[in-house]
User: Fold this.
Amino acid sequence: MNGRPADISGSNANTTIARTFATAGTFGYVCTLHAGMTGTVIVQ
Ligand SMILES: [Cu+2]
Assistant:
């Protein structure tokens, strides 16, 4: 998706990772640690 940051690879448990979104929009994401866990980032 245009303006969407790159995926975060590897195991990310108990860490904090920042991402900058280049453009406004609604961006869905999928948690690869937990099957069925998804979220949405809304950039205004
Ligand atoms: Cu998860």
Summary: The first strand starts at residue 25 and ends at 30.
